[in-house]
Amino acid sequence: MSIEEFSHIEHQMVLGAEERYGDFFTNARDVSLLLSNIMTWPTKDCDIFIRFLSQMKKGHTLCLMSLVRQHRIQAKMVLRYFLESTVHAAYSLVHVDTTNYFDTTDGKKHDPQKASKAAYAWLGQHFKAQSDEIKRMKDLINEQTAHANVYNSFHNFEFVGGENAAIYTSYFDFDDDHWLKVDLWECGQAGLVAADLILAIRKQYGGFIPSRAADKLPELIETSNRLLDLLGEQAKPQP
Questions:
Q1: Between the N and C ends of the chain, which has fewer C-beta atoms within 10 Å?
Q2: Which domain of life does the protein's organism represent (predicted)?
């Protein structure tokens, strides 16, 4: 197939995602829309926060798009980037001094690992619940999909033996609606944790005027909890 044909198939996958995955898709999509419209306007000089917020918004949408286009590894790697951007956005909404990241006076770029260490330490101290959940999700991604791993080949590689032996190496992941729903739930959950964190920090420290889209957060959390219960029911062995 050509890349144009791949692109056409992916477009059809996106168009059919709501019908195929139902609330698991729509909830993750609505969470992504909330993140994309969470801020109306800043109320203080928070350039670094807005930069990381833009990375959050893009990363979450790309994760969602990658999942429904059946590219799980890509989705998980982008989700990790989203979580990392969330930590930095949270930190820089309070710590508006840009010198933790770069110095506009002397043009020096600071050590990104040092900046990350400061951001994670602050978040763990002041917003532990959200920090722990972000760490849990990141650890799971690092363990399973962030690095080259032979087990990931099961998503798009298959060997069929016998008289008509064949090797399949698919561009798209093989169909597995149950696990894709699990991944869609996790994508939505990551976005909810991020939105809850950013809004909690804004409430305590200020920084921007939230949009009316933020009012949907409780409803989306309720839907996410319902979907998690549904996944639990589906995972139970049938009598």
A1: C
A2: Bacteria
DSSP assignments along 194-213, one per residue: HHHHHHHHHHHH--EEEPGG
Distances (CA, A) of 18 to 30, 57, 68, 223: 12, 21, 10, 15
- Taking a C-beta distance cutoff of 8 angstroms, is the pair 175, 72 a contact? no
DSSP for 21-52, written as a single string: HTHHHHHHHHHHHHHHTSEEEESS--HHHHHH
Residue position matching structure tokens 């990350």: 116
**What 8-state DSSP symbol labels residue 14?**
H
Share of the chain above pLDDT 90, in %: 81
Spatial CA neighbour of 204 closest among 114, 93, 52, 41: 93
Amino acid sitting at position 21: Y
- What are the pLDDT digits (tens) for 81-105? 999 999 999 999 999 988 888 876 7
Predicted TM-score (pTM) of this structure: 0.94
pLDDT tens column, 200-220: 999 999 999 999 999 999 999
Domain ranges of the chain: 3-149+177-235
Classify the C-alpha dihedral 120-126-132-137 as positive or negative. Answer: negative
Q: Are 54 and 217 in contact (CB under 8 A)?
A: no
Long-range own/partner contacts, residues 13-16 (CB < 8 A, 24 or more apart): 13/68, 13/69, 13/70, 14/65, 14/68, 14/69
Residue 39 backbone phi and psi in degrees, to 5? -115, 135
